[in-house]
């Protein structure tokens, strides 16, 4: 039987038991009233070596490779029955599914806490690593790579937070809107306000640009980022900002660094899951925290999305299966985690779609279609795909958006795609759902595309709330 992802990661040879008091930190972090109010003390941890600092970032018990989950619920990737809705494992899951004004039923949010936990450990590693004085060239290289990894993880955490708790980035007014709280050291002893959206993205980009110059070319396992992953994350960030030139530049750099496509003709499904974990298309591994209800036999892929796959498209069978003959639809089976958790990391396929979109938007439609054709050739049965040619810019863009939705379904990316595409009237979409005979809708550019700041942070730290 295939090991679960958790077993694989827990058996990872670089995971060790360290002598410093990590459990004390975790208890303080989970038990505090507000995450930005009462913080773990750095004095509780006494890392002695670079290997011990590496262990902080490798620690899966602290969810260092997790991503926000609730933004997935509000997308049009899936739907559930009334009974399925009742079986959701938390009130926030239900509330985010139907776009309620109030999401959280407790003063805290796990999405908020997990991301800031990642920020704290990244900051701790950065501060400690900077104080160490490497003796050999090998130690210097190890320290530089560790610093690059911490910068990457901090940037990704801030980007995850901005995509959920701040409005979509628009260059012309980014300085007028609030972003998130930016913490750049572990000594959190004073209250700090939210930065502007522009300052938030400046921090993300600054961290990533520095990280790319320090990260290694290869790693043993993709729970650690490489230079290729850093470049891919820069491409994702710039696309979310509608900076097509820079997104294009970094996506090309990532491909040139060695990102490879997986030929879906070579994929052999095993049991309920299609893909092996850590396949060659995985540039950086992360999963959505705690999202398992989508594997219920009462929760199904959106029918319009399922029907959009051609019968010769291998993704239709590799991504979805019918749980039983009487089921009302198909369930998702195509996570790159190789298991139940939904993969939310970086992959080569995403890079090809970024290049297809940005080349087209930059007036190079033929080149954009070239990238799209190269991707789709690996997704269709051998010899069955007919390359796209001769489309105008509008037709090509619409095709790219269709393929982006099909390729990146159930990845946690759809929410932010909806946010940025809703800014273009021709691409804006109203979402609708019916639960227990009550119809809910989510209009384009609704303030509910920005999640509420958790109540603890409003009361204990005086953060300014989001308008819902």
Structural write-up:
The chain has 468 residues and is mainly alpha-helical. Helices cover 43% and strands 6% of the residues. The protein is built from 18 helices and ten strands. It has helices at residues 5-10, 22-31, 50-58, 70-73, 82-87, 91-97, 110-131, 137-165, 197-212, 227-240, 244-256, 303-307, 315-319, 348-361, 365-377, 393-407, 414-421, 455-461; strands at 66-67, 78-80, 282-284, 287-288, 299-301, 320-321, 331-332, 346-347, 431-435, 438-442. The strands form five sheets. Strands 1-4 form a two-stranded parallel ribbon. Helix 8 packs antiparallel against helix 9 (197-212) and helix 9 (197-212) packs antiparallel against helix 10 (227-240). The longest helix has 29 residues, at 137-165. The radius of gyration is 22 Å and the shape is globular.
Order of strands in the sheet with most strands: 1-4
Strand and helix order: HHHEHEHHHHHHHEEEHHEEEHHHHEEH
What proportion strand? Answer: 5-15%
Average of per-residue pLDDT values: 90
Number of E strands: 10
Radius of gyration: 22 Å
Basic shape: globular
Alpha-carbon distance between the termini? 46 Å
Helix fraction, binned, reads 40-55%
Q: What structural class results from the helix and strand content?
A: mainly alpha
Biggest pleated-sheet summary: 2 strands, parallel
Number of DSSP helices?
18
State the low-pLDDT regions, or none.
1-33, 35-39
């Amino acid at each position: 039987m295939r090991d679960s992802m958790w077993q694989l990661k827990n058996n990872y040879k670089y995971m060790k038991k360290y002598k410093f008091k990590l459990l004390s930190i975790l208890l303080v972090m989970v038990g505090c009233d507000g995450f930005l109010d009462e913080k773990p003390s750095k004095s509780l941890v006494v890392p002695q070596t670079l290997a011990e600092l590496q262990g902080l970032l490798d620690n899966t018990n602290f969810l260092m490779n997790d991503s926000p989950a609730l933004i997935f619920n509000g997308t049009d990737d899936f739907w559930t029955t009334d009974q399925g809705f009742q079986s959701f494992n938390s009130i926030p899951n239900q509330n985010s599914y139907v776009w309620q004004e109030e999401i959280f039923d407790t003063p805290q949010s796990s999405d908020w806490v997990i991301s800031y936990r990642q920020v704290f450990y990244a900051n701790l590693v950065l501060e400690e690593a900077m104080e160490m004085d490497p003796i050999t060239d090998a130690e210097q290289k190890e320290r530089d790579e560790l610093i690059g990894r911490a910068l990457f993880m901090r940037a990704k955490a801030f980007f995850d937070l901005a995509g959920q708790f701040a409005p979509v980035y628009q260059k012309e007014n980014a300085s007028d809107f609030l972003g998130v709280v930016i913490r750049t050291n572990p000594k959190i002893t004073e209250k700090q306000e939210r930065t502007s959206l522009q300052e938030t993205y400046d921090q993300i980009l600054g961290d990533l640009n520095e990280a790319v110059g320090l990260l290694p070319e290869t790693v043993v396992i993709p729970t650690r980022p490489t230079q290729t992953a850093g470049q891919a994350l820069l491409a994702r960030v710039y696309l979310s900002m509608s900076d097509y030139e820079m997104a294009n530049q970094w996506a090309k750099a990532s491909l040139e660094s060695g990102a490879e496509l997986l030929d879906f003709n070579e994929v052999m499904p095993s049991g309920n899951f299609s893909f092996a974990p850590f396949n060659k298309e995985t540039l950086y591994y992360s999963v959505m925290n705690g999202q398992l209800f989508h594997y219920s036999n009462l929760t199904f892929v959106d029918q319009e999305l399922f029907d959009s796959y051609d019968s010769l498209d291998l993704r239709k069978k590799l991504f979805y299966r019918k749980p039983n003959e009487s089921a009302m639809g198909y369930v998702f089976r195509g996570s790159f985690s190789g298991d139940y958790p939904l993969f939310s990391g970086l992959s080569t396929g995403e890079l090809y779609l970024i290049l297809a979109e940005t080349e087209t938007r930059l007036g190079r439609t033929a080149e954009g279609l070239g990238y799209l054709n190269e991707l789709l050739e690996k997704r269709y049965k051998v010899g069955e795909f007919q390359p796209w040619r001769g489309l105008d810019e509008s037709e090509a863009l619409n095709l790219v958006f269709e393929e982006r939705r099909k390729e990146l379904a159930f990845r946690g990316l759809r929410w932010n795609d909806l946010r940025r595409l809703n800014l273009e009237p021709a691409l804006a979409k109203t979402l609708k759902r019916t639960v227990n005979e009550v119809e809910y809708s989510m209009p384009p550019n609704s303030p509910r595309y920005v999640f509420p700041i958790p109540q603890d942070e409003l009361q204990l730290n005086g953060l300014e709330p989001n308008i819902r």
